[in-house]
Amino acid sequence: QEEYKKAVEEVFKLDEKVLIEKFIKGRELTVGILDDEIFDIVEVVVEEGFYDYQNKYITGKTKYICPAELPEDIYKSVQNLGFKTYKALNCKGQARIDIILDYKNIPYVLEVNTIPGMTEFSLLPKSAAVKGISFEELVNKIIESGLKKC
Fold first, then answer.
1. Are strands 62-65 and 37-46 parallel, antiparallel or unpaired?
2. pLDDT in tens, 50-89
3. Per-domain residue ranges of the chain
4. Which residue in 42, 106, 134, 141 is a FRET match for 1, CA 20 to 30 A apart?
5. How far apart are CA 3 and CA 11, in angstroms?
6. In sequence order, which residues have a C-beta less than 8 Å from that of residue 55 and are 6 or more positions away?
7. Assigned fold of 26-148
8. Which residues pair with 33 in a beta bridge?
9. SS3 for 80?
């Protein structure tokens, strides 16, 4: 509690407008989308700590499970939430919707990434690969999608 108060005080030194969110413990999932195509869900499993820069790029202590191992109804529900979020925000082209699935299997949208990474560590190419879409094909699809909007 004391640590929380200190953190809030520190953040208010930076700005008078602050967004404080409740921490939701659960499984970290991401849904990749390209236009109307929903890719398989990737689950990010970190051995210790958070999925931060260190765990993403340096430690090698992060596992990516794709497709995520979820009951079919939960899987569809998470994909559906990702796609509804994409549509509600009027996203176009590629996007990645990050979701936390709590211990009661209730999904919560964390954020929408409209410029998802395209490296060997990136989650959108991982989920596209499960659908049989190579990295090169994915890049071409993204370019084609963008050109349609010109």
1. antiparallel
2. 777 776 777 777 899 999 999 999 999 999 999 999 999 9
3. 26-148
4. 106
5. 12
6. 46, 47, 49, 61, 62
7. D-amino Acid Aminotransferase; Chain A, domain 1 (3.30.470)
8. 38, 95
9. helix
